[in-house]
Amino acid sequence: MLIVRSVPSSKRWQEISARRMELIQTLIEETLLNNVDYIFCLDVDSKFHSRWGTESLGGLVAVIHPGYYQDDRSKFPYERRPSSRAYLAPGEGDFYYCGGAFGGLLVEVHQLAKTCRKNFEDDAKENIEAAWQEESHLNR
User: Fold this and answer.
1) What confidence category does residue 28 fall into, taking pLDDT thresholds of 50, 70 and 90?
2) Beta-carbon neighbour count of residue 110 at 10 Å?
3) Residue whose C-alpha is closest to residue 120's, from 8, 18, 12, 9
4) What one-character DSSP code corresponds to residue 68?
5) Does the annotation count 135 as an active-site position?
6) Residue 51 belongs to some domain of the structure
7) Catalytic pick among 22, 79, 126, 135
8) Within a domain: residue 32?
């Protein structure tokens, strides 16, 4: 099953990015729950240079961000403000994951989307926007 969802336009790309987890959570709850085992969320401009196979079928899978693939962890753009729920302290984190390509078991992605959305919205109530919106929360 392939489902393509149009995302309403916005004045800032950050707002479109920020609503990603809400859209995923809603899609799962309204359409996919009890109908599929896996979900993969990909940016519309994703390019595949090789096959995407069954090796990606795991609980939660993500793509290492191509812009930081070879960088030392100290250079990753994690959210570094302790006031944000996306905060990662220096020395925490293993890789920097791309917000535009992740997925896995439906129940796991649903929990991830709910958690990221709640943390993002709780930050917003306190006028905090993580460095890279939902991608920062995903990396948390």
Assistant:
1) very high
2) 18
3) 18
4) S
5) yes
6) no
7) 135
8) yes
100 membership: H or E segment, kind and range? strand 97-105
83 CB neighbour count, 10 Å cutoff:
10
Spatial neighbors of 129 by CB under 8 A, at least 6 apart, are 14, 18, 123
Q: Which domain holds residue 69?
A: 14-44+57-139
Cα 29–chain centre separation: 17
Predicted local distance difference test score (pLDDT) of residue 7: 73
Per the structure, how many domains does the chain have?
1
| Terminal Cα-to-Cα distance of the chain (whole angstroms) | 30
Asked whether residue 7 is assigned to any structural domain, the reply reads no
Look at residue 3 and tell me if it is in a domain: no
72 φ, ψ (degrees, to nearest 5): -70, 150
What CATH number did the domain enclosing 34 receive?
Answer: 3.90.550.10
SS3 content of the chain, % helix, strand, coil (to 5): 35, 15, 50
For residue 79, what are its two tokens? 């959210």
pTM reported for the whole predicted model: 0.88
